Amino acid sequence: MYIKYIIINIIAFCVMGAFFFFSGLSAGAFKLIITLVSIVYWFFVILGVERVKIYANKQGIWAFYGVFPWQKRVHKIEWSNLEDALYVPSVIGWILQSYTIKLDSRLLNEHEITIPYVWRGKQFIEKINQARLAKAHPLEAEDQQ
């Protein structure tokens, strides 16, 4: 889940290291600035990644995003408007058990919910599809259980 952010952090270290090497600052100043930048960077990464909540209830599927007030948003897809619920398989997703999930609405593409790196996203999508099948065909869902 954090592999992309670790790679970005390493690239930032390299760029800042080259800058400090050519600027002539001391090693102590370099270590201090690298540490501060890294702490601030990881603070925002962890806040951003951990601030996505998704759940389903009788009305539909809800997704809450955002850390700061200007970023916060809520998406909802009602059960009757849910067209597709799927996860995107990948090697990294399989290793880390975190998949990108996609929930498509019948109405508009703007009502699509796509969330990357959902831990146990495959199991979540399986449960959504079982619930969708149960709502669409109640007798068939009972036969399968």
TrEMBL record:
Transmembrane stretches, start-end: 5-23, 29-49
Domain of life assignment: Bacteria
The protein's name: Uncharacterized protein
UniProt keyword list: Membrane, Transmembrane, Transmembrane helix
